[in-house]
């Protein structure tokens, strides 16, 4: 008689993951889902996710759930948390303690979940449960002093931390100098489908700007760069949900006179749509004005597409200039235009090979191994040190 993976790990202290997973939309939900699945290969995992994540006033998109996954229910997930209902936080915390877990893992990316995560984390720590925060952003992209204070408060309830970039490690140490932090690059997304080659090309060089459109992502810098390339056969697709500023972007396109060089596809794009958009693109452009990291780069690498990214935050950690893409200074439309002008077309095969090699080293299993084993080893070393006493 064979046993399922859940049976194999049934007698092992569970790993608890607390955060959004599919069918919630966006990079954090996808990341948490992929990570939980990878950890489940080696451990007994239970996930507490949300029945309500964002109130409508905070999430201006059409929905925070993927319409293509409307009936999806991730295995081993309790969809019971409500970001606005403290009673659900308390129930979750009590359930976790009762499971006697090896540790609990929280993704951290937004101030809004500060009260919810701080309550649960503090409760767990009081009951001697290890808490690990996976910090996608130590503080919000649109940084404010009060947001940093919330981050300091929430992360202060954690015991160990994982980040994707050296910059986020520095930001975390600035908040909590004694924090134990592990850095592991963002893995490559592998769950996106193969393209079916449905989208026609419009120019010799196809550019893609993808993801939520927010001011810090520098789209208007890219538009100004595009206006310097009217003599080039280049076409830009902007595909993503506008949280604000859609009208101003359309007005900017008209003012710059580049309506015949750009297609704006506002709204959320399914995995199938995403596959077509990346397949058609020759280069993915991230003209960010600020950043810690980005899930768009691993997605581009999944489809073996090079990127143009700015020298901000953790982007240079995963973009090797002139090998897996190109790096430019943020906010410099002229430099960005020149970089686009200098792109060889078609993209050199050696660049695709470099992306392939980098992709192989960025796996979810590697990230899961770091969390499961490096932290446990560190914990064992710390316990031995405490038992030995001062030297």
What does the model show?
By secondary structure, the chain is α/β, with parallel strands linked by helices. Helices cover 39% and strands 17% of the residues. It has 14 helices and 13 strands. The strands form two sheets. Strands 3-2-1-4-5-6-7 form a seven-stranded parallel beta sheet, with helices on both faces. The termini are far apart.
Could you write a compact summary of the structure shown?
The chain has helices at about 5-10, 25-40, 85-100, 115-125, 145-155, 165-175, 220-225, 245-255, 270-280, 295-300, 315-320, 335-340, 350-360, 365-390; strands at about 15-20, 45-50, 75-80, 105-110, 130-135, 160-165, 180-185, 205-210, 235-240, 260-265, 285, 305-310, 325-330. It has about 400 residues and is α/β, with parallel strands linked by helices.
